[in-house]
Each structure stands twice: as C-alpha cells, then as structure tokens.
Predict the 3D structure of the following.
Amino acid sequence: MLKPGPVWAAGTMSGTSLDGVDAALVLSDGEQIFDFGRSEYRPYSDSERHVLHAALGCWPDDEGVDAAAEVVETAHAEILSGFSEASLIGFHGQTLAHDPDGRHGLRRTHQAGDGSVLAEVLGRPVVWDFRSTDVEMGGQGAPLAPFFHFACAKYAGLTGPVVFLNLGGVGNVTWVDPRQPGPEVPGAVLAFDTGPANAPINDLMRMRRKLDQDEGGALALEGRVDEAVLQGFLNHPYFLRMPPKSLDRNDFHDMLSRVSELSDADAAATLTACAAASVVRGGEHYPVPPEAIYVTGGGRLNAALMVALQSRMNIPVQPIEDIGLDGDMLEAQAFAYLAVRVARGLPTSGPSTTGVGALIGGGKISRPG
Ligand SMILES: Nc1ncnc2c1ncn2[C@@H]1O[C@H](COP(=O)(O)OP(=O)(O)OP(=O)(O)O)[C@@H](O)[C@H]1O
Ligand SMILES: CC(=O)N[C@H]1[C@@H]2OC[C@@H](O2)[C@@H](O)[C@@H]1O[C@H](C)C(=O)O
C-alpha cells in the first residue's frame, strides 16, 4: 500500500489525435493536489502513427493490435524512464475502440498497452486499464478526468460553478461546483462528451491540404459557415441523449461527407462551428449556469474555435492557463492523480461522471516482480 500523505505520481495520455504521448508529474494524496511537477511530450514517428491509425477500431483479439500495443509500450517506456522521481505511474494507454453501449456487439472499451510490461521495465508500480471496470459495471468508462477537474478547481481557488472544456479529438466537459466538499458528493460534478472537436478538422486538413491541423484556425477564419450543414449536424441523435454519455472517435465518421461540397475554407469554418455548437448544446445539461468556461486541450490554440465558442456564449470562454493550469498536460496530470486515487482505494468515477450505478474505483495495479 502507498505510504500516507502526498506522493509524486507520473501520469500519461496518448490521446485520440494520435500525435504523441504526454507525461506529467503531480504531487497528491488522491484528494488534494499539492503541486504540479515537470512534464514532457514524446511525439509518435510517422511509422508509429501509421501503426496506431491502422489499429483504430480494433479490439484486443483483432489483428494489428499487438503491433499497436508494442508502439504504445515502447513510447511510454521511453518517456517514463525520465521520470525517476515518480513513485507511482498512471498509464492510460491508447484508446483504439470504445463501445460502452454495445452498439456494435459487446459493451466494452479498449486501451492498447499493457501496464504490467511497463511495471517490469520501469521497476515501479503502474496503475492502468482505468476504464474497463466502469464499463463492466454499466458505466460509459469516460470521461474520467472529472474528479481531477474538481481537485483542479480547488487548487485554483475557484469559488463558484465553472466548466472545464477539453477540446481534443473529441470534446468533453466537466461542470464543477467547488463549494462541495468532494467530487463524490451529489451535485459536485457533471460530465460528458460534447461531440467531435478537432478530429474532423484534422481529417479535413489531411485530406484536402496534406496538413495535420488547421494551424491557429487560420483556414476556418477565412471561410463561411454553411448553416444547413450545421443544422443537419445538430439533428444527430447524440445531442438528444441525456448525460452521462461518451463517444468513440469514429462515432461521427460522416463529418467529412457532410462538407464534401464546400470549399476548403468553408468546410473548415463549418466543422469548427459544429464543434463549437455541440459544446453549446451540452450547456443545456448544466445544473446551474457556470461562471466561466476554462478550455484545455489543443483546441484552445485554434482561434477560430475559440471565437466560435465565445460568440455563442454569454460567459467568459478562457484558456485554462488563465487560472494557472497547463492546457497541454491536464489529461496526463489527470491520470497521475487518478493513479494515486486507485492506489489509495478511492473512487475514480460515479453516477454523475460516467453514469455507473455507484461510485467505483477502476484501474489495475501492476507491480514489478
Ligand atoms: N496551434 C494549433 N492550432 C490549431 N489546432 C491545434 C493547435 N495545436 C493543437 N491543435 C489541435 O489540437 C489537437 C490535439 O489536441 P489534444 O492533444 O488535446 O488531443 P488529444 O489528447 O489527442 O485528444 P483527446 O483529448 O480527444 O484524447 C491537434 O490534433 C489539433 O487538432
Ligand atoms: C474512451 C476515451 O479514451 N475517451 C477519451 C476521449 O478523449 C476526450 C474524450 O474522448 C474523453 O471521453 C476521454 O478522455 C478524457 C481524458 C477523460 O476520460 O476524461
């Protein structure tokens, strides 16, 4: 068992954009955040990314999964070997497939990478497979960052309800009331995935311009939003579902065909408006209006997306740096914090975050032999 008091844990995230691995240190006792430490980013090479892309949608027994797991384990072993000050590792792995509602068969979620292999290589305990138990118990298995977002709101000294918005490949929000004593208390957090965020914009840029992303949102800023496409997108049944709810990267696979008739700039503007509008639609579910929205993830660097959000909302939409947090590393930090919670036997999700029936602690702990 973990010694009492705060410990330094290193968390990692390999997100749905498949760009690379983030790793970051957090000093925590699993409840409070005492400090944030250094962080690092290790990009995937083109060939590694190709292997991961090819394995998207795969389940553990499918062909191609072993190669993807090896890429994930190798990249994580490399980046984590530099974090010798961490006594505990929180290893998220790479989500390849996520079907918590069993729409394609079994209800399940799949993060590639074996934490027991990393525990051996690193010689330290590794907490991993954070999402499976939640799904097995009837939850969505995502988002899992909300309990960490609650601790962040306390760390930042916030005093009223706010929203943390992560704009990664997929968007997700956590509505947080930091006046509550802890994240497990009813009314402290409400979380769900909002819709596609950067993934369709990236896919468009790759297909039409051979670029990885719409840098700064420059192309979208040149274009005009096609209102008919936007309205059609908002008719998707996902937006009628009550939270908790979560998405697979491929759930909105038809986004590019929706904009196929538009110019590059209009298509970028329209996909950007779709991402922003889906976040706004999500606002219907907040128990109490938030005082501000703090944006984390790569999408906060897309000016077109930030402008589209602010123009649709009457509360401040600010990058999370404005409250002293690191928008590039928040997800990696989340899995460091959650690793400490798992090691201490504290819950990592509950009815208001993943929809699981009761508070549960997910995650396996693998120790070096
Ligand atoms: N300077 C920038 N201009 C425009 N977009 C950017 C910029 N920097 C990052 N992005 C967008 O953010 C994405 C990366 O975001 P992030 O790292 O938060 O995603 P992720 O963690 O992989 O995804 P998820 O949170 O869904 O798992 C990039 O793929 C790109 O679309
Ligand atoms: C299944 C899965 O990996 N989901 C990710 C993904 O990326 C963003 C969004 O979709 C969120 O639900 C989740 O990640 C964050 C870190 C979470 O669990 O809170």
